[in-house]
Predict the 3D structure of the following.
Amino acid sequence: MIQLATTLRLLGILVTLFSLTMLPPALIGWIYGEASLWVFLHAFFILLAAGLLIWVPFFWSRGDLHVRDGFVVVVMFWLVLGIFGALPLHLDPALHISLTDAVFESMSGLTTTGATVIVGLDDLPRALLWYRQQLQWLGGMGIIVLAVAILPLLGIGGMQLFRAEMPGPLKDNKLTPRIAETARNLWFIYLGLTVARALAYWAAGMEAFDAVTHSFSTVAIGGFSTYDASIGHFDSALIESVAVVFMLLGGMNFALHFLAVRRQGLAPYARDEEVRFYLLLLAAGAAIAVGYLLYAGVVADAPEALRQGIFHAVSIGTTTGYATTEFHLWPGFLPVMLVFLSFVGGCTASTGGGMKVIRVLLLAKQGLREIQRLIHPHAHIAVKVNERVMPDRVVEAVWGFMAAYILVFALMTLVLMASGLDQVTSFSAVAATLNNLGPGLGDVGANYAGISDFSKWVLVFSMLLGRLEIFTVLVLLSPAFWRR
């Protein structure tokens, strides 16, 4: 059974910690002399009070956190964060958005989806712009993983939270023997990449504020920008090149970044089969995009085709969602192909969305194994990744995930179509939110402001499912989960 007291105590601690995230945007509001300062201060006190109200009654509660408790805390925490994170967005008169839109924007930020309902970003207070980017930065690695590094100091173990939060089928792999140390190492790598990206953007021509805020959403593979035109606002090939490099890094397994730093070399990347497959897929997508842009006459010359084709293939393929032009208006199959590329997404243990490269690689290898079995029925053929034999349990889990993914995708697409959206809009909206991509096609190509509130709530649920990889959420709907 669920340990309610321990679970609520942990939830209270996490909400209390989250209240501190209201202070940086308040500081930005103070620096720039904006009225949004008071909105974030009010939100801070509301969150702090809510966290303490949940925490204090169970302050003395002690108990080991079991696997079931971990799932409950993770899902509850993301739901609570999505709602409370919407507070400053809903309260700030500079936005004038409904509660539905505020929750949509908040959940989109925390899940690093990057879908937006806000128009007129160029004119918003900088405190609000900072907050949107900060939401993605916190959600990128997962606030739960950050909490795992801190909560052991409060007497609470974190392996169950880590297993529920981390993306990918191989959740038991750890960089170091102690889970808290693993989480801290991940965050050191994450912070280091954030600083490096900010400096690179600044050196490429962004002003300091834009460099820092865009580093937040790039490292998180989120895609939020401080401008309506996204990265296209800067019209700089150099800035786009910096973004491409760091989007590629953000979509890779962060464990490999850790190993590369520790061993001071690139060998961990070169030896990893998932990374090679990841780069091959993106290179193929970029080559097709460049070729078709030239063939269809969308761009004037080869350099511009290279610039737009590579940028958007990497941006959409890694599920970042940055854009330099209205790619959803490109002719032919190209926009749909890019959306399909996002289904693969980033590598396991990365900040990217999608089904994850390792799952697609395992599915491809399993498909080849079945073909070989037809030819050699009595042969024992193993599925290997990085020269390691994958247990049948892992392969079965991948097939189960794939089945659940397709079923959820189909059902949500039908629900959106039933609500009045056309087929292209429904398909791309679910794909963009379930894959944590952001921009879609059709009526959601530019933004999501024009769709109904009902559709937005469906897509909020889709973002949550995508961020927590479906089973973390669906397991709570299983009667077996709640039995003794």
Notes: The radius of gyration is 22 Å. The longest helix spans residues 392-418. Residues 153-157 have pLDDT under 50 and may be disordered.
